[in-house]
Every structure is written in C-alpha cells, then in structure tokens.
Write a structure and sequence with these properties.
With about 180 residues, the chain is an alpha+beta fold. The protein contains seven helices and five strands, in the order αββααααβββαα. A five-stranded antiparallel β-sheet has the order 2-1-5-4-3. A hairpin with a 6-residue loop joins strand 4 and strand 5 (about 110-120).
Amino acid sequence: MYRDVGEREEKIRRLVDANIIGIFVWDVEGRILEANDAFLHMVGYDRGDLASGRMRWTDLTPAEWRERDERARAELSSTGTVQSYEKEYFRKDGGRVPVLIGGALFEQSGSEGVAFVLDLTERNRAEGALRRANTSSAKSSKRYQASFGQRTPPANRPNSVSACWDYSGMQFEDFLP
C-alpha cells in the first residue's frame, strides 16, 4: 500500500514539474504554499517570493474578480471542487494575466487544495487579432460595395458585369448582406 502511495506521489510530482500548466497548492486563508515554475512564470514571481511566504492568491486577484472567487469558494465548500472559470491575476510587475483556473480541496472538509491554471494571454491575443481582422474586412467590404453602388440593379451595370451574372447563374441579391 505504501508503495502505491509513493508511486502515485511520484506521478503527481512529474505532472507538477512538467510545467505544462501552472499548478499551485493553496490554503483557505489565501496563502500559496507551493507552486510550479509555470505558475510562477505566469505571474512573474520566483522561488524566493514563494519561499518568503508572502505570495497570496487573494492578493494576486484584482478586486473585480473577488466576487467570482467567493462563488468558487462556495462551490469548493459544497462539492470539494471548482469547475474551471476565467479570471485575471496581477503579475508582480503590476500587469495582469488572463487565466483559466479550476481546483479541488485535498479533503472535502479540508483547508488546503490545489489549483490548475492555464495562461490565456495568447488565446486572447489571437481572438483580438481575429476581431480586428473581421472588423477590417467588414469595413473593406462596405467600401468596396459603396464604390460599386451597392444597391445598383444588375441591369444598370456594364455588359461585362451582366455577362458574369448570367454565367454564374446567381442573382445580384445573392451577394448582398
């Protein structure tokens, strides 16, 4: 039995040390007791900061996210786990990092647990770029339509355009937004 526990602990330690995602051990008073390098890097802290005992997840959380954290605490109290949700943490340099976080208590009525944290910075950056591209595309499309008289009926277009409509078998209205 002890061997099984040791093997299980070794597997968990490999997961934490792999730094695929941020992982930290916390207590209900808000202290971060342990953290892997992925989490420390995410929030801009180092092992010295962690060893000092001054890292608190409650201090890393901006005020506008505290209500959501309270709902997560209630979920932890009732079920022992909290489903993942998005929030932000303050970085040591004062910036913010958007994250997806979920967690679990070690024991149902315990005061310590583990959190799994995924940095959403790149996803949010990609979503922003996509939004900007879509906005730019929509503006270009409107400018293009305006330059050709968006609502001009095909009969009033030059013959080459009318020939294209006839060849395609489509109607002018098929291309309108």
